[in-house]
């Protein structure tokens, strides 16, 4: 059986250690908190200080930056990017290749479609069809 971690060098030459999440084999940085029931698919990265809630699903190739919070039952599609300090509410769905900016908020139950962008600091609420509601 292979090792259960990967060491990656950052831009400043510092080595960061990521463990492979037992449920999906995605890479979890030291200091991140991921609920045991969450699925973090292979190729996904969860950075230090990030929190992934119960029954959340992080798709292949997604990147969860430091201090982001992913709520219970939220779904982050493959190759989505959740910015530093962003918060994704419970049961929200984030589409493929969608970028959620730093410190942005996506209200629980919202649907953000594929290839969309939520600006830094923006708060977004949608109905089940993905139509934006007045904030």
From TrEMBL:
Q: Does the keyword Transferase apply?
A: yes
**SUPFAM superfamilies attached to this UniProt entry:** Trimeric LpxA-like enzymes (SSF51161)
Q: Does the keyword Transferase apply?
A: yes
Source species, domain of life: Bacteria
Pfam families the UniProt entry points to: Hexapep (PF00132)
- Which Gene3D superfamilies does the protein's record reference? Hexapeptide repeat proteins
Source organism (scientific name): Microbacterium flavum
Q: What is the lineage of its organism?
A: Bacteria, Bacillati, Actinomycetota, Actinomycetes, Micrococcales
Question: What does the record list as coiled-coil region(s)?
Answer: none
Molecular function (Gene Ontology), one example: transferase activity
- Protein name as annotated: Transferase
UniProt keyword terms in alphabetical order: Transferase
């Amino acid at each position: 059986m292979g090792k259960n971690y990967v060491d990656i060098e950052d831009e400043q030459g510092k080595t960061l250690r990521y463990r492979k999440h037992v449920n999906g084999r995605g890479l979890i940085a030291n200091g991140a908190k991921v609920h045991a029931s969450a699925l973090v698919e292979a190729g996904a990265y969860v950075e230090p200080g990030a929190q992934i809630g119960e029954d959340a699903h992080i798709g292949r190739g997604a990147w969860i930056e430091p201090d982001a919070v992913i709520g219970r039952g939220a779904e982050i599609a493959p190759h989505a990017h959740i910015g530093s300090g962003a918060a994704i509410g419970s049961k929200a769905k984030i589409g493929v290749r969608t970028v959620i900016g730093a410190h942005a908020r996506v209200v629980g139950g919202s649907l953000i479609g594929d290839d969309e962008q939520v600006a830094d600091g923006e708060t977004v609420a949608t109905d089940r069809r993905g139509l934006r509601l007045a904030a």
